Amino acid sequence: MPLLARAGVINKETAEELNSLIKERNYFAHFYQEVTVKKVWDMLLKIDKIYSFVLTVRKRMKENQ
Prior knowledge:
Blueprint (H helix, E strand, L loop, with lengths): L1 H5 L5 H19 L6 H8 L2 H17 L2
């Protein structure tokens, strides 16, 4: 994500938010026995960040075709 931010594809704030989600995903994958309903719910509340990222990348790809 920092590379995408430096390239101007996403802003620094979005890069930090997505990095946070990546860390949470890794936590879920490696410490699944410690995952609580609250952690899952908190992650779901941030799903819009991923959707926004996908839309941004798709837009950039169309612009560069």
